């Protein structure tokens, strides 16, 4: 029997059936095409809705690494910042990625940091001293004096981390000349400090916000040199300072 004859036979059978029998027959023989058709329509409607629905504006992206916090603290921080910054969740969105609370080897956290820096979408990074040190040594942290202003930094006096750019330049020159004598373990050497005395060219790269966010007391905020929304990063830091003033 040809395909055309088979189709005609099915049509004839349905034509001569009672309504209930016809429905049962059609479902028995055509349920998968029907299900597939319904699924295709649903996907089409979803695609059209996704394309036509107004996209929310991304106003802030932050990454938190190696800072132990419980879910309640994270939620309180987010809700408080949304209110403080006046973020309209109907039309705006934000991301605070709490992805790596503690990574003993540092590998996972550094990999995640490198991905975020490469994407150039991150406005603020909060982490332990290893994370801040990595950003500063790699010149991935912005100059906070220039970005935030000296007046803003006054409220963080005594809690500002610096790196000596003179040391960075000397290291780069040694590498270029083939004179780098970096030893095993030197990669973890801390180059940042709250004490800028003795630095040839101190650069403010991080702020100690431990009292505002972490029970362990260790948390340093850096702003990536590729920051897209510096004003929101500034607002987040102001919010943390206000939270600290209230005893977190």
Question: What can you see in these coordinates?
Answer:
This protein has 2 domains: 3-52, no CATH class; 57-245, D-Maltodextrin-Binding Protein, domain 2 (3-Layer(aba) Sandwich). It is elongated and about 100 Å long. Strand 1 (57-65), helix 3 (71-85) and strand 2 form a beta-alpha-beta unit. The protein starts with a helix and ends with a helix. Helix 3 crosses helix 10. By secondary structure, the protein is an alpha/beta fold. The chain is built from 10 helices and 7 strands. A 7-stranded mixed beta sheet has the order 2-1-3-7-6-4-5, sandwiched between helices.
Instruction: Tell me which CATH architecture of the largest domain applies here.
Output: 3-Layer(aba) Sandwich
CATH class of the largest domain: Alpha Beta
Structural class: alpha/beta
Number of distinct helices: 10
Q: Indicate the percent of residues in helices.
A: 40-55%
What overall geometry do the principal axes of the alpha carbons give? elongated
In CATH terms, the superfamily of the largest domain is Periplasmic binding protein-like II
Q: What is the CATH topology descriptor of the largest domain?
A: D-Maltodextrin-Binding Protein, domain 2
Q: What is the rounded Rg? A: 29 Å
Report the major sheet. Answer: 7 strands, mixed
Q: Quaternary arrangement of the chains shown?
A: single chain
Order of helices and strands: HHEHEHEHHHEHEEHEH
Strand order of the largest sheet: 2-1-3-7-6-4-5
Q: Distance between termini? A: 80 Å
**Spans of at least 5 consecutive residues with low confidence:** none
Binned strand content: 15-25%
Overall mean pLDDT score? 82
Q: How many domains in all?
A: 2
Beta strands, count: 7
């Amino acid at each position: 029997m040809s395909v055309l004859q088979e189709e005609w036979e099915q049509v004839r059978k349905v034509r001569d059936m009672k309504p209930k029998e016809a429905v049962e027959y059609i479902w028995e023989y055509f349920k998968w095409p029907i299900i597939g058709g319904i699924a295709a329509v649903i996907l089409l409607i979803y695609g059209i809705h996704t394309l036509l629905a107004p996209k929310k504006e991304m106003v802030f992206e932050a990454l938190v690494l190696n800072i132990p916090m419980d879910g309640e603290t994270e939620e309180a921080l987010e809700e408080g910042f949304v209110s403080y910054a006046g973020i309209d969740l109907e039309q705006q969105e934000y991301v605070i990625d709490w992805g790596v609370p503690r990574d003993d080897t540092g590998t996972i956290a550094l990999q995640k940091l490198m991905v975020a820096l490469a994407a150039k979408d991150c406005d603020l990074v909060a982490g332990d001293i290893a994370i801040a040190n990595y950003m500063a040594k790699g010149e991935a942290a912005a100059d906070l004096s220039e970005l935030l202003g000296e007046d803003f930094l006054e409220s963080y006096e005594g809690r500002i981390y610096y790196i000596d750019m003179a040391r960075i330049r000397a290291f780069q020159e040694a590498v270029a000349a083939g004179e780098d004598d970096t030893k095993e373990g030197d990669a973890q050497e801390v180059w940042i400090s709250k004490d800028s005395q003795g630095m040839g060219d101190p650069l403010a790269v991080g702020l100690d916000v431990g009292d505002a966010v972490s029970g362990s007391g260790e948390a340093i905020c850096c702003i990536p040199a590729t920051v897209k929304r510096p004003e929101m990063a500034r607002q987040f830091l102001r919010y943390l300072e206000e939270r600290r003033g209230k005893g977190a």
